Amino acid sequence: MMKTTSYTLHFYIRSISSNILNFLFVVSSSIQFSLTMTLKVYGIGFSTCTARVLTCLNEKEVEYELVPVNLGVGEHKKPAFLAKQPFGQIPVLEDEDLTLFESRAITAYVSHKYKDNGVDLVRFGNIKEAGLVSVWIEVESQQYNPAITPIVSQLYIIPMRGGSTDHAAVEAAAEKFGKVLDVYEARLTTSKYLAGDFYSLADLTHLPYTYYLMKSEWASLINSRPHVKAWWEDISSRPAFTKVAENMTLAG
Amino acid sequence: MVVKVHGPAFASATRRVLACLIEKGIDYEIVPLDMLNGAHKDPEFLKLQPFGVVPVIEDGDFTLYESRAIIRYYAEKYKSEGTELLGKTVEERGLVEQWLEVEGQNYHPPIYNLVVHLKFFPKMGVPVDMKLVEESEEKLAKVLDIYEERLSKSKYLAGDFFSLADLSHLPFTQYLVNDIGKDYMIRDRKHVSAWWDDISSRPSWNKVLQL
């Protein structure tokens, strides 16, 4: 009789304990979930490099919080920001205890970490396609960007900072940029997107500066090249970008 | 399959690729290109590399260009062989990408101007722009101050491991330290100097210099 009672009591205690433990587990999991930090992007909506990162996060369907950096008061050159980004540039990504800067490094990191989410921007699992994506990201970095930046900078960024446009510099830059675009025209005659017949990070990385260029008379550089024009219309109409473009207000 | 590397062995971007291939133990063959006589602008070469710059690699029927794309490709393809150049985790890889981008966006433009104007233009009979040289030195000095701070906390750029980020700095820094009388830019900065001695004494780099 005693043995049965103690067994029954033991059973009840065990079942109550396991219910309590289950309850505590569920509660702690919920707390953990809500405490897991959302990605933070330090930047500003109209900034080209911030836009590059935000577009990528949208394509990957990853949630983030945009933490504004007040460029007007030089927040990006103050010690608190320099501790995150010693070159004093936006954007910066914070992912729990990882801080990353350089927009093209952030987009590479996000594309790899969230490879199973959203659009496959870096062709994970196909090393040759991934290689071609890499090529055109570097072409953007080393050929396209140095050619287009002086145009966008002279037309929109320098005036925003209180300076005035050097039109001769714009014209000289436009000539060089045209030559780069001739290579793009030839490339896009053979392939729908830059790395192949698939949209990738290589195309995405071209969006922000080109968006601003298209607000100026120099849109003709793109529009006069039919394959570049078609490519531009395609990539710039993707919802992941149009959402971001709403805040790209430098060009009015 | 031997990787064909088009470009003169002395060209900085070609050396960037060669250093990576040697670190990974990949067989390669250099296909020389007479750049000092404009071979990189010939129509045949432009079919391989439409911007007319070196290097280009041919791996069977697969062609790649832009040295920093080529090194990422081989570091990934041969991840389990030779030296690990991308870090071990997704986070470490992120830091490698960050410092590779710093090299490409912040370090490269000023150091390129210094090396091209002070080492190559005189050989080619092209006039040197001393104002640009001065401005570039100033810009590079500011970047190196940031590197000094970084390398006081971390043995290599991306962390306590050698990676593509460090490797990418080898070619132009080699010229800066040895050929154009600007070695003080590295030597005056204790941690940058120690880092430079470390990475430039790697067997792979010594091999590249002998090619």
From TrEMBL, chain A:
What GO molecular function terms would the record report?
glutathione binding; glutathione transferase activity
As recorded in UniProt, its EC number(s) are 2.5.1.18
The catalysed reaction is: RX + glutathione = an S-substituted glutathione + a halide anion + H(+)
Recorded hits in Pfam families, A to Z, give:
GST_C (PF00043), GST_N (PF02798)
The GST N-terminal domain covers which part of the protein?
37-118
Q: Any transmembrane segments, and where? A: 20-42
Q: Name one GO cellular component term.
A: cytoplasm
A Gene Ontology annotation in the biological process aspect, one of them, is: response to toxic substance
Q: Which UniProt keywords apply?
A: Membrane, Transferase, Transmembrane, Transmembrane helix
Q: Which domain of life is it from?
A: Eukaryota
The GST C-terminal domain sits at 126-252
Entry similarity comment: Belongs to the GST superfamily. Phi family.
Which named protein is this? glutathione transferase
TrEMBL record, chain B:
A Gene Ontology molecular function term for this protein is:
glutathione transferase activity
Q: What sequence ranges are listed for the domain GST C-terminal?
A: 89-211
GST N-terminal domain boundaries: 1-82
**Catalytic activity entry:** RX + glutathione = an S-substituted glutathione + a halide anion + H(+)
Q: Which domain of life is it from?
A: Eukaryota
Q: A GO CC term? A: cytoplasm
Q: Which InterPro entries match?
A: Glutathione-S-Trfase_C-like (IPR010987), Glutathione-S-Trfase_C_sf (IPR036282), Glutathione_S-Trfase (IPR040079), Glutathione_S-Trfase_N (IPR004045), GST_C (IPR004046), GST_Phi_C (IPR034347), Thioredoxin-like_sf (IPR036249)
Is Transferase included in the keywords of this UniProt record? yes
Single GO biological process annotation from the record: response to toxic substance
PROSITE patterns xrefs: GST_CTER, GST_NTER
- Print the keywords alphabetically: Transferase
Identify the EC number(s). 2.5.1.18
Cross-referenced PANTHER family: GLUTATHIONE S-TRANSFERASE RHO, GLUTATHIONE TRANSFERASE
Family membership noted in the UniProt record: Belongs to the GST superfamily. Phi family.
What name does the UniProt record give this protein? glutathione transferase
